[in-house]
Amino acid sequence: MEEDEQGVRWWAMVLWALAVGLLARLVTVWMLTGSPLVHAEGTGQRNLKTLIVLGSGGHTAEILHIVEKLNFEHYFPRCYIAAVTDNHSLAKAKKLEEEKAGENAKHCSYYRIYRSREVGQSYITSIGTTLLAMGHAFWLAFSIRPDIIICNGPGTCLPVCVAGFVLKVLGVKWVVMVYVESIARVNKLSLTGQLFYKLHLMDQFFVQWPKLQQKFPRTQYVGRLM
C-alpha cells in the first residue's frame, strides 16, 4: 500500500515538474516573440524555408504581391498552403513562381489544409471542423518545419500560426511568424489580426495605415504595399 502511494506521489511530482517547465517555456517564448532575426534558427544561413498562407480573393492577391517583392534566393525554398475548397490560389502561386523563379519553381511545395469554418457553417458544427483543421495544421507544421511563416489574415492562417507557435514552445524550431494586415483594414484590425495581436503570437505585425498603428502600438506601419 505504501509503495502504491509513493508511486502516485512520484508521478504527481513528475507531472507537476513537467507542467511548471512547460509554463516557464511558454512565458519565455512570449517574452522573446518580437525579435525574430535574433532568435530565428539558422539566421546566419543563406536560405530561409518560407511558408506562405494563401486565402481567397483579395487575400491571395495581396500576399502574392508581397511574395513577389521577396528575395527569392534568400527566402527559399517556398511552401504554399491554401484551403482544400480554394480552387484558385495555388494556381496563382504556381504561375508567380514559374514567371519569377523559372527552373527553381520546381523546388516549391504546395499544400492544402482543411478550413476551420466554411462561410455559412453553423458554430456548433464548426467545432469539429476546427479540431480537424488544427490537427492537420500541426501535422503540416511538423512536416515542413519552416523558418518563417508569412500570412495576411485569412482564416486558414489561424491554425497554421498556432501550430508554428507550438513548435517554438516545444523547442522543435523557432519559427518566425510575420503578419501583414490587409490594406482594406483602415480603422480596425480583422478578426484574425485581433486574435494574433491580443495573444502576442506574431514576431512581426505590419499594418498599412497609420491609424491602425496608433491604435495598436505593437504593430509596425509600413505604408501601402499594394
UniProtKB/TrEMBL annotation:
| InterPro entries named in the record | Oligosacch_biosynth_Alg14
State where the protein is found.
Endoplasmic reticulum membrane
Q: What is its main location?
A: endoplasmic reticulum
According to its UniProt entry, one GO biological process term is:
dolichol-linked oligosaccharide biosynthetic process
What are this entry's molecular-function GO terms? N-acetylglucosaminyldiphosphodolichol N-acetylglucosaminyltransferase activity
Per UniProt, which keywords does this protein have?
Answer: Endoplasmic reticulum, Membrane, Transmembrane, Transmembrane helix
Q: Which residues cross the membrane?
A: 12-32, 122-142, 162-180
Work out whether the entry's keyword set contains Transmembrane. yes
| Topology relative to the membrane | Single-pass membrane protein
Gene Ontology CC terms: UDP-N-acetylglucosamine transferase complex
A Pfam family per the record: Alg14
Judging by the UniProt lineage, the source's domain of life is: Eukaryota
What the record says about family reads:
Belongs to the ALG14 family.
Q: What is this protein called?
A: UDP-N-acetylglucosamine transferase subunit ALG14
- Source organism per entry reads Marchantia polymorpha subsp. ruderalis
Q: What is the lineage of its organism?
A: Eukaryota, Viridiplantae, Streptophyta, Embryophyta, Marchantiophyta
